[in-house]
Amino acid sequence: MVVLQEPFEFLVNECIKRGRVKSEGSWDVYGSALYDFLAFCHANELDWRDNSDRDNTILSVYRDWSVKDCGLATSTVNARLRIVIKFYKFALRKGWVNSLPYQIEEVKVPTSKGFLAHTDTSGGWKTTPDVLLSTQKTRIHVLTHGQVKELLSSIKNTEHKLITRLALATGLRKQELLTFPTKYIVNPAGLSGSRFHVRINLKPEDMILKGSKPRGIDVPISLMEDLWRYIQLERGARASLSGEFQSILFLNSEGLPWSSNGRGLNKIYNDLGLSFHVRPHILRHTYATHSLYLLRKLNCKFDPLMYIRDRMGHASLSTTEKYLHVLDILESNVMDSYQSELDEMCQGIAQ
């Protein structure tokens, strides 16, 4: 239980002073990655400052141990290594080490053929630390129209079904779903304007948003009606169980907010016994892919890709572009239909 000054100073600089790592969940990831590496060094009596062995660097030894002895996934090992590499770069600038425990090499990468292909000046090559493992491109999982119908028909609990519908209709992240405030739900009967959807402006002071960045989402009128009915008829009984005022919309069986970092939703979907995997991030991918497909079919006055980027809260358009690749590989009959309310919502947006 002794504080190590160098990694502590790095974490303060990276997570607080620089302000680039705004999510407290990411702070935990940074701290855990450094703790795992330094614990490995301590257990094997290795000094993290010693970079004298250039043929068998401390990072390569740590990497191989993580894969062979711990059985960690390639993506997990690389994610931890990238944080440790940042730490070593910081240590070099501070003069704590004289060299870095890795070399930089050039690797061939696939060139973009999508919307942003004209902005790629890499020539198909990029530089990367040589200790990182080679990875395969992660496949995005998207539910088909039939799977969406099967999923929704399998869920009997009203609250669980509303959470799922909200995810499918807006692309909210898990933490955003489970911290969504009651104040955002309004009586559709008193609204004027679009008959297809309700624009809700999400604010970081009201809920957890990645990077604490506000953004807008469009909720279908039919879903807003059901959420309003849920508040009026069912939520009150659940909220009274805790004996405390709860500002969050969805509550657990004890009348308390769900743990936004827990696996409660995953368990709910696992318990359904479906033949396909369902996770909150898969629902998010499903929203983005199907919405992009529908908006591209319509005569929109705006760029559908930009619209999806803003609704999803992506920092970069290149992140949203990955859904274009999904459209290229999915069969057209998979994409031709989705929830009718989502289809109507997209038509309303395009008008």
Automatic annotation (TrEMBL):
| SUPFAM superfamilies found in the cross-reference section | DNA breaking-rejoining enzymes
Q: Can the keyword Disulfide bond be found in this entry's annotation?
A: no
Core-binding (CB) domain location: 6-92
What InterPro entries does this protein's entry cite?
Answer: CB, DNA_brk_join_enz, Integrase-like_cat_sf, Integrase_catalytic, Integrase_recombinase_N, Tyrosine_recombinase_XerCD
Keywords (alphabetical) are:
DNA integration, DNA recombination, DNA-binding
**Domain (Tyr recombinase) ranges:** 138-336
- Report the family membership: Belongs to the 'phage' integrase family.
Q: Which PANTHER family match?
A: INTEGRASE_RECOMBINASE PROTEIN MJ0367-RELATED, PHAGE INTEGRASE-RELATED
Q: What is this protein called?
A: Site-specific integrase
Q: Upper taxonomic classification of the species? A: Bacteria, Pseudomonadati, Pseudomonadota, Gammaproteobacteria, Pseudomonadales
